[in-house]
């Protein structure tokens, strides 16, 4: 640790393609020499970003290696998805903007199969995430990375409980398990147990970060809790119900941290003093709320680059306003999360 640097851990949410927003946030944070990232808890797309960062570090490139690895991954993901994914924007979708796939024939077909076929016999039952991840990420390097600890949750289908995988054991199956949407992919089997998406139990899982430090936890929020309208199609209903379920675990974790005494409320203040944990939130909630629910399946490069730039700009503004407060107090008010009010507490 360099003298004067602030040690932080990161909590990265899932959200499919919205993980490209997290890519942008990470890209900016990795350029900030005043910060040292020592641990990452990532779920679904957040777990992917976490593994890519560790891969980049272990290549010997440090921060710049991690930034380069993230760029390679997301460009590679878009290229590979263009060859296998049926979810491609239609001309109407391109004209509408917002990353929507609402009129994409391939997306509608994918959702139709998801609604009427069990995942083991659906077109995506082979879980293309595993070979894709194995191609784009060197998991031997991830396991060998000593600079950053990783925590990746997945949901045990049989017991209904979560399992947290750590860096030293990570492989493509575990990241795929953390990203396994039940109505799209067949369960991922690890050690004889079947797993679904980790967002059911932690989005992200904050407990290992609270238990093992450092005290400053920066959460990168991809998923808006509130949305302005009601879902009108079956595919939108399925997407929104998953989004709500995944957000419940996030709100629960914030509530538990607050009630267990890690955070002490300060009356009439936007900042929360903390005895043991200092929470921070980087969110572009208002912008991400505008995106159609189907955008989480959009892997077109222009859309991913738009999300990346949004992440960079959001992190830049957050750092300007909050960097000096890291190590001193929380900049996130957990009461606002519990009330599902404006979550953009960084005032971006």
Automatic annotation (TrEMBL):
Give the motif span (GXSXG).
42-46
Which residues are the active-site ones?
Answer: 44 (nucleophile), 197 (proton acceptor)
Q: Which stretch carries the motif GXGXXG? A: 14-19
Which organism is the protein's source? Pseudoduganella lutea
- Which residue spans traverse the membrane? none
Query: Which GO BP terms apply?
Result: lipid catabolic process
Q: Which UniProt keywords apply?
A: Hydrolase, Lipid degradation, Lipid metabolism
Cited InterPro entries: Acyl_Trfase/lysoPLipase, NTE, PNPLA_dom
Looking at the record, the residues that make up the PNPLA domain are 10-210
Q: Does the keyword Manganese apply?
A: no
Name under which the protein is recorded = Patatin-like phospholipase family protein
MF terms (GO), sorted A to Z? hydrolase activity
Keyword check for Lipid metabolism, yes or no: yes
